[in-house]
Design brief:
The chain starts with a helix and ends with a strand. Strands 8-7-6-9-10-15-14-11-12-13 form a ten-stranded mixed beta sheet, with helices on both faces. A three-stranded antiparallel beta sheet has the order 3-4-5. The chain has 846 residues and is an alpha/beta fold. Helix 6 runs parallel beside helix 19 (434-457). Helices cover 59% and strands 11% of the residues.
Length: 846
């Protein structure tokens, strides 16, 4: 009853907050009117105000004039932004001025656009320009002291030096942090702090001004490089968002995820309204700042959390998966909210369409992405199959990233949402596997990310910590962040059914702001939401929470013992490391009308228990369409089996299959009938086997019923037919179908054995014993029941058939080695099994 009441109260609070946010947005939009023509005035790269067009001058021309006057204030040491005020011109127009310089006048057309009077508008503009110009003024203070050439060659030279110095320093300090047990992102950020105004700028200002000048064009070049790194980071975060994992965890992760976003968001908004006015860029923008801080409090940092969970050996535990799931949901919510905040901040001019553009653009973007999901997967599949250029899929992934980010930027949301969303979608297709993600991850984490974080550290002002009052505010700010995150995670965990230490671990784990906190800080600063002091406080908070997470999480997890079920699951996962089965991402299934397809589907479903795969069902043009009942749908198995159907243009089997195999596949499954001949395969299949560019799994139907629950799978270990890859498939299929594994070894005896051959026979027996023991160890890890049988006989194939009959096995799995003969021949043992075994037979030809 108490839990129901708590749930009801939480949901009521969420609904009330959503309604209040909607009313606030609607009220803000209702207070503003659309101007027929307007243009944006910017301070640096951040938007400031919007001016309307007049009968004598266009809006763009007015904005250009005002932008030139702002640049003059930033570049002139004698002009102090603190002296910006409102004055009345000779014609009675209220204007924003600095001494004798008139920055902008609030004319009647501007007042009509804002639906306010001219004097009030002039005061609003003066506050905005005073704070935003004052924010950037220190960065331009040293520009006049250094002789910077404006030639493009000079810009390129400085950019190369900046990136090289930032990358080298970030790599070195990141390595130091790793060696002392901290995430490398901490060292990468410290590299920027050391090279910025806090250390290098204070000790050697001339060197700092020479290498990192505050000249606007040069700053923009480095900012562009940083933005590329930001987009790549967010796309990688999206690819790590496991939607299936979020669904699997249930309320144990849902409640910490929801409350871990809602409660910190509300506390962050409250902190935004309690901050001293001197920490804000503009007191009139306190609502935007509060909303931004609420979004910052609500977010987590999946990349850093995943690394910490790996370091403390908890990434594969249930509690580790719950922490990761909660962080994934919080990051997703945070990215959407960040995009809305960025859109509102960018539309600070107050035009009504600017406010509505953000939510409507978000809805439109998600609708288009959801609707085009299948189209996107088809595009990836087409590129995977048709493009022959090396790295084509990698190029496509990067192009999709850029186009998606550009789309959200155009829709009035922020580019971060597009980068994150395309990462989530690309992470759901098995074709974007290790061959694409590994180089992308290496390039991003080794080049773009270090430069991005180091560049972020350049703007950190550590003198904030030297001021006693600001130091106390920074400590209180960090304490509020930690309290909101840990408390909300704990409450959510308890409501979700976790015990005390598990709930505390969830709160501590999600209280890691790392990369996402830094991204939020940089975006807030570039959008003109944060002052330099607030920006530095958030950077310090992100570093502190990242550094304190590993020891605190290790302490809390030490009180969460491993359950028997968890131990079993970990042992199973250890078995499925970098194996043959683990490398199967795309499988071709060749269906034939006269051949039983159910065994092929059993193999597909079993591999789907292990990981996500894409299976292409190839049907010949002349045969009837395969019934849906014979094919598993999307989501078959514990993993995700994505089914794709193709109809071969050629009616003949071998040319059609070989043409399809020209596309990259990891495995092809082909069935055969007992009527195809003594070897179980017709001449068409023989042609496929000889010319296939990928491994083949050849299935021959049996006289007995298909594989089902409580069946038996026979794995021969006779010299010449045993293989680890075939054993992996057998164990995986037995585990998925709850079958028993029967391992048989046949010691072949020769009629005229000589005495000197007895030593060789003994060695073969010892080798066979080792093989049987290794298979038993693998089967025991997967909790697959196993039975071993040892036989002696003149012909190994006949003994294998006898054991299959005695044990009533439903399937025999062997490894086939094609002999260099005219007709298809895998050896006498496999030929005997294919011809006489009553059960189904699978031959893996690699």
């Amino acid at each position: 009853m108490l839990r129901r009441r708590t749930t009801a109260r939480v949901m009521s609070a969420v609904c009330a907050f959503g309604a209040a946010l909607a009313f606030w947005w609607a009220g803000a939009a209702a207070c503003l009117a659309a101007a027929p023509e307007y243009a944006e005035v910017r301070v640096g790269s951040a938007p400031a105000i919007v001016v309307a067009g007049m009968s004598s001058i266009s809006a763009d021309e007015r904005a250009e004039i005002v932008n030139r006057r702002i640049d003059r204030i930033l570049a002139s040491p004698e002009l102090n932004p603190a002296d910006i005020r409102v004055a009345v011109l000779r014609d009675g127009t209220p204007a924003v001025v600095l001494g004798e310089l008139v920055i902008v006048g609030a004319v009647r057309e501007d007042a009509m656009a804002y639906r306010t009077d001219q004097a009030m508008l002039a005061h609003q503009w003066s506050e905005t320009l005073r704070t935003k110009i004052g924010q950037l003024k220190p960065l331009y203070a040293r520009a006049q002291k250094v002789d910077i050439k404006t030639l493009s060659e000079q810009h390129v030279l400085l950019l190369l030096l900046q990136v090289g110095i930032l990358l080298t320093t970030a790599f070195f300090l990141g390595e130091v942090m790793v060696r002392i047990g901290q995430p490398p992102v901490v060292g990468q950020l410290l590299a920027g702090v050391l090279l910025g105004q806090s250390v290098l700028g204070a000790l050697f200002p001339d060197v700092s001004g020479l290498v990192f000048p505050t000249e606007k064009t040069q700053s923009y070049l480095l900012e562009v490089v940083s933005w590329v790194g930001l987009l790549f980071l967010l796309m990688l975060t999206g690819t790590e968002t496991n939607v299936a994992l979020i669904r699997q965890q249930g309320k144990a992760a849902v409640w910490p995820a929801i409350l871990g976003s809602v409660i910190p968001f509300c506390i962050g908004v409250g902190v935004g309204y309690l901050l001293p006015g001197n920490l804000l860029l503009n007191a009139q923008d306190r609502a935007v700042t509060a909303f931004f801080l609420g979004t910052l409090f609500a977010v987590s940092s999946v990349p850093v959390i995943a690394k910490i969970l790996m370091d403390v050996k908890a990434i594969r535990r249930r509690i580790g998966q719950i922490v990761l799931t909660a962080a994934l949901v919080q990051d997703t919510i945070g990215c959407v909210l960040l995009a809305l905040v960025a859109a509102v901040a960018s539309g600070d001019a107050g035009h009504s369409t600017s406010l509505w553009k953000a939510p409507l653009g978000t809805i439109a973007f998600f609708a288009v992405m959801f609707g085009a999901r299948r189209l996107l997967f088809n595009l990836v599949r087409w590129a995977h199959d048709r493009l022959m250029t090396q790295g084509a899929l990698l190029t496509l992934a990067v192009a999709l990233l850029l186009f998606s980010a550009a789309t959200t930027q155009f829709l009035g949301v922020h580019a971060v949402l597009g980068a994150f969303a395309i990462g989530v979608l690309l992470g759901q297709t098995p074709l974007i596997g290790e061959r694409v993600m590994n180089p992308l991850h290496v390039v991003t984490m080794s080049i773009f990310a270090p430069v991005f974080f180091a560049a972020a550290g350049l703007h950190v002002n550590l003198t904030v910590l030297a001021n006693g009052r600001l130091l106390m505010i920074s400590a209180a700010f960090t304490g509020a962040v930690c309290l909101s995150k840990i408390l909300s995670g704990y409450i959510g965990g308890r409501i979700g059914g976790l015990n005390t230490w598990e709930s505390l671990s969830v709160g501590i784990g999600t209280n890691t702001y790392g990369a996402m906190g830094l991204i939020f800080a940089i975006l807030g600063f570039s959008l003109g939401i944060l002052s330099v002091d607030m920006y530095s406080m958030i950077i310090v908070m992100a570093m502190l929470t990242t550094c304190m997470a590993p020891p605190l999480l290790s302490w809390s997890l030490s009180h969460v013992p491993l359950s028997a079920e968890e131990r079993l699951q970990l042992e199973r996962e250890d078995q499925h490391g970098p194996t043959f089965v683990g490398r199967l991402n795309r499988i071709l299934v060749v269906t034939r009308k006269d051949v039983d397809r159910r065994l092929a589907m059993d193999f597909l479903s079993s591999i789907g228990h292990h990981h996500s795969i894409e299976a292409t069902i190839l049907e010949l043009a002349h045969q009837e369409q395969t019934a849906d009942a014979d094919m598993p749908g999307r989501g078959a198995g514990e993993g995700n089996v994505t089914m794709v159907r193709r109809t071969a243009e050629c009616a003949e089997l071998a040319p059609a299959v070989l043409k399809e195999l020209a596309r990259p596949y990891d495995l092809a499954i082909i069935g055969g009938s007992r009527n195809d001949g003594p070897a179980g395969f017709d001449p068409a299949v023989e042609g496929i086997i000889r010319n296939s560019p990928c491994p083949l799994l050849l299935l021959r139907e049996g006289r007995q019923p298909e594989l089902g629950a409580a069946g038996r799978i026979l794995v021969p270990t006779t010299h010449g037919v045993h293989d680890v890859q075939a054993t992996e498939l057998a164990i995986l299929l037995a585990q998925a179908s709850n079958s028993q594994l029967v391992v048989v070894y046949v010691a072949e005896e020769h009629v005229n054995d000589l005495t000197w051959l007895q030593t060789s026979q003994q060695e073969r027996m010892e080798l066979a014993q080792d093989i049987v023991e290794s298979i038993m160890a693998l089967a025991e890890k997967s909790r697959v029941p196993i039975e071993t049988v040892v036989r002696r006989g003149v012909h190994a194939g006949r003994e294998i058939v006898k054991v299959a009959q005695e044990k009533e096995c439903t399937l025999i799995i062997l490894r086939g080695y094609l002999r260099p003969t005219r007709s298809l021949f895998f050896g006498h043992t496999i030929s005997e099994v294919l011809s006489n075994a009553p059960s189904a037979v699978a031959v893996l030809a690699v």
